[in-house]
Prior knowledge:
Layout lengths: L6 E4 L5 H11 L5 E5 H7 L1 H9 L4 E7 L3 H13 L4 E5 L4 H15 L8 E5 L7 H8 L5 H14 L4 E3 L5 H8 L4 E4 L18 H7 L3 E4 L1 H4 L4 H20 L1
Parallel strand pairs: 1-2, 1-8, 2-3, 3-4, 4-5, 5-6, 6-7, 7-8
Helix pairs in contact: 4-5, 7-8, 9-11
Amino acid sequence: MEAKDRLIVALDVDTRDEAMAIVRDVGERCGLFKVGMQLHNSAGFAVTEEIMSMGYPVFLDLKFHDIPNTVGKAASVVSRRGVNMFTVHGAGGGEMLRRAVQGAREAQGAEAEGGPLVLAITVLTSISQGVLNDEVGLPGSVEENVVRFARLAQSAGVQGVVASPQEIGPIRSVCGDDFVIVTPGVRPDWAATNDQARVMTPAEAMEAGASYLVVGRPITAAPDRAEAARRIVEEMAEGLARRKK
Ligand SMILES: O=c1ccn([C@@H]2O[C@H](COP(=O)(O)O)[C@@H](O)[C@H]2O)c(=O)[nH]1
C-alpha cells in the first residue's frame, strides 16, 4: 500500500458543506476520510453515505462504549451501512469487544468475506501519563495500559487498535505484524500540537510501523489543504522507505 492510501483525514467540522469542501480539496491525496462524533451528530449518517457514494472509504469513529448487547447491535447497524472501519472502546471489556466483532460479522452474513475493520481505542492520544494516573485513575505507564488494551482487543477477535505512534513498537512486539495500528496524534514539525499529548511526526510514525495515520487539523485548518496533505504524504513516504530498509 502506498503512503497516500494510509492517510486518513479527520472531518471534524459541523456541517455537510464544510465536510464536502475538505473532501473536494484532499480527496485525491488521502486513502480514507474519518467521520467522528462532531460531524455525525450534526449531519447524520447521510454525510457518511454521501462520501462513500463518491468512492471514498469511511472510517466511522463513534467510539462505542456501552453494555455488550448495545454495542453488538450498533456494530451490526454501522457494518450494514458499509463503513470500512469503526471504533469501540477497549475499556468496555472483552465481552463488549467480542460482541462488536460478532455484530460486524453477522451484518456481512455468515458466508460473506470482508466487512469493516473493528478497531479498539486504547488510551486516547490526548491523555498524558499524569492524567492517566491521577485523573482517569489507571495505575501503570501509558505504554503498559495501551499494550494491555491491545492484547485484550486481539484476544477478543478485534483486528486492530487506535493508539499513539509512541506505542507502536510495544504493540507490534505483542500483537504481531498483521495487527492493524491506526495512529492519531500525528504532527508534522510545521503544525501546532493542539490538545494532543503523545505525538510523533508522519515520518516517525510510518517508520515505527503504523498501518494508517489519522490527521485532522494540520490539514483541515491549513490555508492550502491540498498542499498540507501533499507534504504529509511525502513525509509518510520517507518514513515508509526507512521502515522497509
Ligand atoms: O486516541 C485518539 C482517538 C481518536 N482521535 C481522533 O483523531 C482525530 C485527530 O485529529 P487532529 O486534528 O489531527 O488532532 C480526531 O478526530 C480525534 O477524535 C484522537 O485524536 N486520538
